[in-house]
Design a protein that fits this description.
Radius of gyration: 28 Å
Low-confidence stretches: 1-24, 362-376, 382-396
Structural class: alpha+beta
Number of strands: 14
Number of domains: 3
Order of helices and strands: HEEEEEEEEEHEHEEHHHHHHHEEHH
């Protein structure tokens, strides 16, 4: 009896087997490929044939980036149903752009009029900026790409990155959990040429969800570049440390940490803070929770105050409190509730305590306040002489 049942099962398998294989083989994929046209578009191609008219071809793709859940997008293509077809779909980066080096996994599903369906194996394409001959240097989780300058230039930038990460770890206990890629363009113009609709002052940008930094640094502008690189690197690390569906950092905290990790406040930005203190023209901390003004002088002051606020919190309450604050923001706390839970005061309380800690500066040895009219005129001339890219290009 058992033998008879086994024979019946085998007979059924053999009778069904050929029809299953035939159904899978009804549709043949002749070509599946993708082309990078950086920075404007990514084009996907498909060519297929079947014994029946192909009536549907659908592209599926997934972008490798930090996300709260795996997201797969779909794209439909237009073509005339036929037994042999060719189609394409273009990702127009004017709608949603990708940074250099982004990894995209894609596959197609194809159906014909006979009800046959096939899914192609996943393929990976990197949205590389192939207009330049990139070299690379890797240390641990950091990889630096560059195309102008010698290896010593790259090593110095890599040393700067490692020093910046060490300061973050020592200062507030944060360290990146995912790999970081740094693309060093030879100039700000080259950088802007790699972007869709860039701001005219852009000199560096952190793509926080991708773990990517793109920045314009020439070998002759290394000092500025090292400072800017640490700034953008800090943004990446802080965003990795606070990544969650609920977190929203106040702008002053995000920018203040990035500037503080750069080192001493630059003189022209410090001058903006000193003038505001002397003339009682400080921007409120609550206002600094939102995006900063596009006006250059207000922007200088916003960044200066952000630095000063972070400096005040670290100097008076320590590193552990700052890490606690970031952790609470990661959990989705409001600005006021997070500050109250960690420090015992809300945004307005921080504003009051911070202002009380500031003193109107005077010129050393002369007792002349910064608000003295000739001093104001001189500082205004200094600030106006600085171009917007020099002063603010890194503040993204």
């Amino acid at each position: 009896m058992i033998r008879r049942i086994v024979l019946i099962i085998l007979a059924l398998i053999f009778s069904l087997g050929p029809s299953i294989v035939a159904a899978e083989d009804e549709i043949n994929i002749l070509n599946s490929a993708a082309e990078v046209h950086f920075p404007n578009e990514l084009v996907f191609f498909l060519e297929a044939e079947s014994s029946a008219d192909i009536i549907d071809a659908r592209l599926h793709y997934h972008v490798d980036k930090m996300n709260y859940a795996r997201v797969t997008s779909e794209a439909w293509t237009d073509f005339v149903p036929a037994s042999k077809m060719e189609t394409r779909w273009t990702w127009d980066m004017r709608q949603a752009s990708l940074p250099p080096g982004s990894e995209v996994t894609y596959w197609w599903t194809v159906e014909d009029a006979a009800g046959n369906r096939i899914e192609t194996p996943p393929q990976v394409i990197h949205f590389d900026d192939n207009r330049h001959s990139w070299q690379s240097l890797t240390r641990g989780i950091l990889t630096l790409f560059w195309y102008e300058g010698d290896e010593a230039f790259a090593r110095e930038l890599m040393d700067t990155c490692e020093e910046g990460l060490a300061r973050l770890t020592e200062g507030i206990g944060t360290y990146p959990e995912k790999p970081i890629n740094v693309y060093v363009y030879a100039s700000a113009n080259d950088l802007r040429g790699s972007m869709i609709f860039p701001q005219e002052w852009t000199g560096g940008v952190a793509f926080t969800y991708f773990g990517t930094i793109a920045i314009g640094i020439s070998p002759g502008n290394l000092d500025w570049g090292k400072s800017a690189l640490v700034h953008e690197l800090t943004h990446l690390v802080v965003h990795q440390a606070t990544f969650s569906p609920y977190a929203q950092l106040p702008i002053w905290l995000d920018e203040g940490l990035a500037m503080y990790n750069e080192g001493e406040l630059k003189p022209y930005i410090r001058a903006s803070l000193d003038r505001a203190v002397a003339d009682d023209l400080l921007i409120s901390v609550r206002s600094l929770c939102s995006p900063f003004s596009a006006d250059s002088e207000k922007a200088y002051l916003s960044y200066a105050e952000s630095y000063s606020l972070v400096e005040y919190l670290l100097d008076n309450y320590g590193d552990e409190k700052m890490l606690d604050l970031l952790t609470i923001f990661k959990e989705g706390s409001t600005y006021d509730d997070a500050l109250t839970a960690v420090y015992g005061f809300d945004i307005d309380g921080l504003d009051q305590r911070w202002r009380e800690s500031l003193e109107a500066p005077t010129l050393a040895g002369l007792g002349v306040p910064w608000s003295h009219p000739p001093i104001i005129a001189a500082l205004s001339a200094l600030i106006n002489s600085l171009t917007f890219p020099e002063a603010l290009a890194i503040k993204n």
